[in-house]
Amino acid sequence: MAADDFEAMWRDLVPVGRSASSGGYFRQPWGAAEVELRTWFAEQCAARGLTVETDGIGNQVAWWGDGDQGVLTGSHLDSVLDGGAYDGPLGVVSALAALDTLRARGVVADRPIGIGVFVEEEGSRFGRACLGSRLVTGATTWDDARGLRDRDGVFLADAVAASGLDPSRGLLDLERVGTFVELHVEQGRDLVDRGVAVGLASEIWPHGRWRFDFAGQANHAGTTRMEDRHDPMLTFAMTALAANKQARLSGQRATFGRVQVEPNGTNAVPSLVTAWLDARASSDDELAALVDQVERQGTDRAGRDGTSLVVTPESVSGSVAFAPDLAARLAGLGDWPVVPTQAGHDAGILSDAGIPTAMVFVRNPTGVSHSPDEHAETADCLAGVEALADVLAELTGPAQP
């Protein structure tokens, strides 16, 4: 029954926000596809006799059962640009299917179970990762966030209003939440290498996004001698290579994945190159050292190129260590490995807010994520549903001594 429910829900989601050309997904928050998904979630909850609460920015939660110290599960429905199908939605669909599984087992929970969806987890539109959960937990305030702009210059406040929401209605109240469990497709190859379908998270690496503004002098591409140029593209190119080298040498991660150029003309030396660095490391100190080294080398090169560099942190998250006793307790339910992740999640934000948190990972056969090639086998997804149901039953059963 749960398998049929899972596959039916997955079929519902496949076409929403999918590009006909690439096969990837464009489910940006407060856009048409995300609004459709929000409606779909409410309908799925209603079909299960659950009432959905939607807050003033689009975060959603539905509860099964009454009381406090409930267990919240779920994930997000938005995607990166041209992203994969599983990052986020797998956790939401699996949460609904796990509830179906518990009901089919005849489980009577001592504590309520909530299924939630957080908005703008990816930060793909307004540049602030896990924005919905940051606002709910108070890690970010609405006054700070409302002025964020997307690539088209649209303010966050205007985008939220245009999707039919009103922030003055307030945000989700997490007072009922005693524990949060997020199921997610693994964004790496750890479980593949171990030959297992399911694992639990031990920690999230610290990570962040920094804006690098390289300024130079616009000029003619043909008449300006090479030795007379102040070309910020050259400074950026060297900085990107430096980031790659420093990350490889230290065993960390550094990526320049987004670039804007002004005036962006084929026959003009640019005046400004803005690039965003995504950096991740095994510790907060390692992350700071990596970014400092990339900035230093970029600044040194700018001095030689006659350009300038200004670095601005835009979204930085410190290391998150999930409660080891909770992870060990849950791992014992299925002899699941406990592994770290280099990807950020809403689970990390709720953990930082003091809510005991765990993550369940489902094997990704290629390890590819944030891409149309992202994938998980149905059998592994169903194993994840069963694992999540076991976890929820454990956490909502009689209190542990």
CATH C-level label of the largest domain: Alpha Beta
Q: Helical region count?
A: 12
Measured by DSSP, the beta-strand proportion falls in: 15-25%
Q: List the secondary-structure elements in sequence, H or E.
A: HHEEEHEHHHEHEEEHEEEHEEHEHEH
CATH fold description of the largest domain: Aminopeptidase
Number of domains: 2
Main beta-sheet strand count, sense and barrel state: 9 strands, mixed
Summarize the amount of helix as a percent range.
25-40%
End-to-end gap:
34 Å
Class based on secondary structure composition and strand pairing:
alpha/beta
Pfam families: Peptidase_M20
Family: Belongs to the peptidase M20 family.
Protein name: Allantoate amidohydrolase
Organism: Nocardioides potassii
Overview of this structure, please?
InterPro entries: Amidase_Cbmase (IPR010158), Bact_exopeptidase_dim_dom (IPR036264), Peptidase_M20 (IPR002933). Belongs to the peptidase M20 family. This protein folds into two domains: 2-205 and 319-396, Aminopeptidase (3-Layer(aba) Sandwich); 207-317, 2-Layer Sandwich (Alpha-Beta Plaits), CATH 3.30.70. The protein is α/β, with parallel strands linked by helices. Helix 8 (232-250) runs antiparallel to helix 9. The protein has helices at residues 2-13, 32-47, 89-105, 131-137, 142-145, 156-162, 190-194, 232-250, 284-305, 324-331, 346-352, 378-396; strands at residues 52-54, 60-64, 70-76, 113-118, 177-185, 198-204, 207-215, 219-220, 253-262, 268-269, 272-280, 308-317, 320-321, 338-341, 357-362. The radius of gyration is 22 Å and the shape is globular. Helix 3 links the parallel strand 3 (70-76) and strand 4 (113-118). The protein is built from twelve helices and 15 strands. Strands 1, 2, 3, 4, 5, 6, 13, 14 and 15 form a nine-stranded mixed sheet that branches. A four-stranded antiparallel sheet has the order 9-11-7-12, covered by helices on one side.
